[in-house]
Amino acid sequence: MTPGQIPTPDPTAPDSAPPDLSGAARPSVKDVEYRGGPLDAERGPGLGCFWLQVIVLAAVVVLTPLSAAWEWPILITIVLLASTLVLLLFVGQTIIFLLRLVAADRRATGRRRPLRSETKTVGELEDEAGTDEVAREDEAPEDRDGPG
Predict the structure, then answer these.
(1) Which of 34, 39, 47, 120 lies at 20 to 30 Å from 65 by C-alpha?
(2) CA end-to-end span of the chain, whole Å?
(3) Are 33 and 40 in contact (CB under 8 A)?
(4) Got the DSSP string for 78-89?
(5) 38: part of which helix (H) or strand (E)?
(6) Residue 122: pLDDT band with limits 50, 70, 90
(7) pLDDT at 47
(8) What does residue 37 show for φ and ψ, rounded to 5 degrees?
């Protein structure tokens, strides 16, 4: 391979899939990976768990400085502070998980076009480029190279 040449997959390799010659646009749907597998909405925390965590976090965030101001025993203030940090961790991880669920759901429905966009989105340009590549693969080699 010469410098600057783009490597192409070996079509004779046993793990390579045959090219799609149907002429249809490639689907833009991608599975969202989570812990080495596709993301399953049924596994993991839901919105009820998230809102419970947020409510408890809000209460602890309010009570922690008030416990110091009201001169509660220092052990209670320490426990409230530690629980604030732990709840921040859990709420943050739950938010990330739920955002990944939303992303997986939106990817499953396909590309969405911005409402006021007059130009093509990057995803639409990528889809068209993929369709053009499939069309070029369908052509006979003598058609691409021209005469001679």
Answers:
(1) 47
(2) 25
(3) no
(4) HHHHHHHHHHHH
(5) strand 37-38
(6) confident
(7) 81
(8) -145, 170
